[in-house]
Each structure stands twice: as C-alpha cells, then as structure tokens.
Design goal:
This protein is α/β, with parallel strands linked by helices. Helix content is 28%, strand content 26%.
Length: 301
C-alpha cells in the first residue's frame, strides 16, 4: 500500500530546546523518501521515528545555516555505512557548494554510495518522474535559500454512472483508460480530471513571490513560523515569517492542511501559534508541529 506522509524529525529554529530538536523532515511519497533540511541530531531523530537510511532517495537543503544542514554529515555517512542500494540525490543552493563539500567529507569514512549532487541555482524543475515533479523557488533570507514543491501529475477519475450509461464494464474499463476511446465513446465522456496532489516545503524567508508560488493550491504546506505576530519586526530583520503571515499565505493559496514549524526558543506556548494562524482567517486543517509527529498528506479531493 502506498504511503504519503510527513515525518517531523525536528521543529526548533536556531537553538534546540529540551523538547525540540533542530530541523528535519521526511516526506514519504509512495515508495520514495525525501529528507528536507537535516539539522544537527537528525540521525538520532530518524532512529526514534523509525526512519532508516534505506528510506532516503533525495535530500533537499533549503540553505546553509547550521540548524538546516549540520546533520547532513551524519546522514551522508549513515547512507554509506548502511550501503543504501539505490541512488541518492542531493539538492542544495549552488552558492553553498563549499559548505556541502565540507559536510559531505567532514570526517574520514568509507564511501560506498554514490550521492548525486544536483545543486540549485535558479527557479525551475529539479526532477521529473512518473510520480512527481520536484521544483525549487528562490526565497528571501540573508543567505541564498530555496523552497521546494512536489506536484503529482493529474490523473483521471472514472465515473461509474457514465460508464454504466454507455454499457462499459469489466475489461473495457481498462481498455478505454489506456486507449482513450472505445467504439464511439471517448475517455472524456466517462471520466473527469483528478488533480494531482501538491506538497510544498518553505523554510527561512520573508514574504516574497517564491513563498506564494510554492504554496499555491497545496494539499500539504510545511512552512516556517519562527516568530509570533507581535515580533514581526524581528521576523523581517532576520528573514523569517510570523504565524499570522504564514497562515495568511496558506489562506490565500487555498492550502488544505497547514503545518507550522521552526519555532524560536523564546516561545513556550505552541497554542499561541495556532490562535494567531486562525485569527487571520485560515480555515483549513492546521497543525502546530512537534518532534516525531506524523502528518498524512490529505486524501485526494
């Protein structure tokens, strides 16, 4: 059975706390696993969450601040120690190539797995597979940062009542799906477009065009809300979002499930992030993330 879910490994921003590890997020998408922003301690959090190195197919780093990338060294070495049998691709800002190189070879180890380096230097598609298209959009942060968006291709939903009206049953249903026509009946007459699912990952950034483009129409949006609204000035100075700003983006983009994360250590009451997100009028499903949480991708509409 295919699984589509987000596994939250860590939710702290610059400073971890007793209850929040540095960043780390695994998206399970059918048979693939995409690890986003492995901060310090990610390898141990993977163990606690039941995530193995064999589950990883891609690593996506938004930017090279430590809370988003210091765990990369351990994860890369674990991939090699466990001799992961399939290719692993790493995406990260090309401007941070020197940081990636240092983290990949931070210490001596036996390299058994060829990690494909696929750095990002502009908006656009990074990978196109039968299951999804992965794209990147530039964000607004003191160092170069990119957000990521995964989009499933649109499919078709067969309509039983229309199939019955045309007398199409059994193997003929599969035949019209494959060939697009059966006799004088077209596929459009007995089916409708089923929109592909959409996921986006938006970390450290001010409000910018890239944030809105990534969030548009998402079924699941994971987005930083480092600060509460009363600290909007600090958020702008340091290149971050507030809870209200993140929720307003989700509201305007029609996001179905919003996951707020990347919280400053100055706050101890997560309920306030939810209250401020609701105050701007976001009415969809809302999760204030905590470590080791699992969030399913919403079922198709």
């Amino acid at each position: 059975m295919s699984v589509r879910e987000l596994v939250v490994l860590g939710t702290a921003s610059q400073v971890p706390t007793r209850h929040r590890n540095h960043n780390g997020y695994l998206l399970r998408w059918d048979g693939e696993g995409i690890l986003f922003d492995p901060g310090e301690g990610t390898q141990r959090q993977m163990l606690r969450a039941g995530v193995a190195a064999h589950d990883l197919n891609r690593i996506c780093v938004t930017h090279f601040h430590g809370d988003h990338s210091l765990g990369l060294a351990g994860v890369v070495q674990r991939i090699n120690l466990d001799q992961v049998p399939h290719p692993v691709t790493a995406h990260y800002p090309k401007s941070g190539q020197r940081f990636f190189d240092r983290l990949r070879y931070a210490t001596a180890y036996r390299e058994t797995v060829g990690i494909t380096e696929a750095p990002v230097n502009a908006d656009g598609d990074l990978a196109v597979t039968p299951a999804y298209t992965l794209e990147a959009r530039k964000l607004s942060h003191p160092v170069e940062s990119y957000g990521y968006r995964l989009t499933e291709p649109d499919g078709r939903r067969m309509l039983p009542e229309r199939l019955a009206a045309h007398g199409i049953t059994g193997p003929d249903v599969g035949r019209i799906q494959r060939e697009g026509v059966l006799g004088d009946v077209t596929l459009d007459e007995v089916s409708e477009v089923r929109s592909g699912q959409r996921f986006a990952f938006v970390m450290d950034t001010r409000l910018c065009e890239g944030v809105h483009a990534l969030a548009e129409g998402c079924d699941l949006l994971v987005i930083e809300s480092t600060f509460l609204d009363e600290d909007a000035g600090l958020a702008a100075d340091h290149g971050h979002l507030t809870a209200g700003q993140a929720a307003a983006v989700a509201r305007d983009a029609g996001v179905r499930h919003l996951v707020l994360t990347h919280f400053s250590q100055r706050y101890s009451e997560p309920e306030e992030f939810e209250r401020q997100a609701r105050a701007v009028g976001y009415a969809g499903e809302l999760t204030v993330a905590h470590d080791l949480l699992r969030v399913p991708v919403p079922k198709r509409r």
